[in-house]
Amino acid sequence: MIRNKWCNDEMTQATALSLIEYDLQALFDKALAKVDVKHANILNIALQDLCKWWKNYFVVTRPGIRNRAYHEFEENSGGKIAEDDESFFDCLTSINAFRRSISIGEGSRDSSAQLFVAALRSLGIPARLVCSLQAVSFKIARKNEATSRKKENVLGSTNEEAQRTLGLGKYKLSAKRKNGNSSKPKRGQGDDDDDYNPLSKQSSTDRLGKSRNVLKNSPKRNNSNGLQESNTPPIFWCEVYFAAYKKWFCVDPIRALVNSPQAMEPAPNDTDNVMAYVVAFEQDGYIKDVTRRYTSQWGARTRKLRVPATKDGYDWWHETLSYFARPYERKQDNEEDEHLHKLEVSERMPTSIGAFHNHPLYALERHLKKFEIIHPKQPIIGNIRGEPIYPRKNVKQLHTAETWLREGRQVKIGEQPIKHVKSRIYTLAKRRAANMASLYDEEPPESGLYGEWQTEEYIPEPIIDGKVPKNSYGNVNMFKENMCPIGGVHIPINGIGKIAKKFGIDYGDAVVGFDFQARRCVPVIHGIVVAKEHETMLLEAWHEYASHVEAMNNEKREREVLTRWRKLIIGVQIRMRLYNDYVKEDSSDMEEGESEFYHGESEGESELYHVDTEEEDNNCSIDVDKPNETIGEKTIVESNDDKSNTNSSDDMDIEGDFVRIEENDINTGGSTTCDDKDEEMYTGDKNEVIEIEGGFIREKQYEDIDIGGGFIRDDEDLLE
Length: 720
Fold this sequence. Notes:
Residues 345-396, 398-461, 468-542 form the Rad4 beta-hairpin domain. One of its GO terms (cellular component) is XPC complex. It is a single chain. This protein has 720 residues and is α+β, with helices and mostly antiparallel strands. The protein folds into five domains: 2-294, Transglutaminase-like (Coagulation Factor XIII, Chain A, domain 2, Alpha-Beta Complex); 349-398, Single Sheet (Anthopleurin-A), CATH 2.20.20; 400-456, no CATH class; 484-586, Alpha-Beta Plaits, CATH 3.30.70; 607-719, no CATH class. The protein is 30% helix and 22% strand. A six-stranded antiparallel beta sheet has the order 8-7-6-3-9-10, with helices on both faces. Helix 2 (10-19) crosses helix 8 (109-122) and helix 3 (22-31) packs antiparallel against helix 4. The relative contact order is 0.05. The model is unreliable at 150-228 and 595-720 (pLDDT under 50).
């Protein structure tokens, strides 16, 4: 796809157009002036002349890519291709190198075809870039094949060493660059006599009148080295659309071939060029599979080289191409599809028995599968070694009566199985039957197979007086929609059967399939089948029931949430109480004047905050004299009373909404108030420990007293 984009590069096309002779440009303009057979012939002549000119202009200095086998990766440094071998092939890594290749007129065989496409597009010709993808085969070669190939590689390298010793096989480009100086060839660009056996040269004159060396045919080189010659089928070529014929014609610029699709197919024994996937890249970037145009044995050989489709019909290749195909259909594309289909159905008959296996057009009886049969056995379209050849369309699928029932068909009355096969042992019951048969030397159980012509569409029974017809298990077979009883309806809602049972409505569970669990065949039930007159009432009752269940689930969820919050709050309270009871007692060993709570410092003197009480309406409230600073989200005002600082042991902690005084170990929170009767609790003995936490007052002189809800419990007996 990247090379196809490079072919659309404006700079590359401008360079190619500037190199093409004016006479050729005028000939192409004349061919495109009108769409008819006469101008199509002119276009054909112009393409041939352009190929000849390109063959003289562009010098092939490197071969293109080739197919590689698995054993090549194993032989080269742990699964990697040797750098010398890889750098010898096409190595254009940027658009600048692509532009330079057409400017100097040399490069690999693949880049030659790609640049030729750019030249055609610069002339306004609708051209495609065609590539035969050299994917690594999903089949691993046999051991003897890999060993023989390895020996060929060793012999080839030995011969090259001998040639280098004798000074033979050197390849030099005698062509001079336009500046008159011969440039020293770089490694991997065609002058390495260790890697490339050259093609002979001939002299020709380009449009500028300068001499240029052009490659000619040479003795064939060993294919085991992966080198391609100019007379072998290419990996890249191009296609040109002839509007008069409504067809795409292939063009090979290296061999100067026009409309010769058979010449693009490599030999079956060519391991360096394997034709399995041939794709054409449109000028707008879309991709199309055109393999059937260039292969003569699509059904017998090429189709088997691809990754096969799965049993459920999934084809990886078609799925992948769908992402790059044109999203809309053109008349031109439909005509091409029809042409490719004609090529497929007109394929000649194979000449070997193995080629008939899974052939899309022809079939032999020996290749039939377990559940296949040829029906009818006419016509016989040929013979091979005395065995009749039948059309593939006569191969029919066979199934058991149960399988046909799942397809919505039933065996006709009086029909006999056309074929018997050994039963598949899937369940414990069938395994026991097979074991009993073997114990008494009986034949294993067999299943009768029927063809589609022996079946008919399933005819369901009617519902009479609201009674639903059921099978022997009390269910209704609903494998297909046409199997619903006459006058009934299928409600595909699980759990609605209990509502129908409460209303006293007759129903049957709908069996839509089977599942195998623990070697048992378990029916898959989805909804129920009832009479059509009960459908509306059941659906209304179901919606009401579903709403009630949802409300109950919400209430249950709320209760669970509140329970978890209650546990969390109780846990926090317990943690704070344990902290106040035990952790703060250990802090009494601290040095005098040192406090673990917050205190402010001003001019080197510690300013402690204290709490004053104010009597108001027979109630007492706890207020704080606030200094001019803010702690957390509460403002603390400094007290002007000197008495508040007389005792340096008074420590006060501000935690959120709580104020604590260490002198009496009093913890107050929120806006807690108390009666006058208990005011002495705040001014009494220092040994008393009173905690006020968020509305709770606790006394710990004798035992813990919990006072909740903002109230003080006046229990004289407990205080004594």
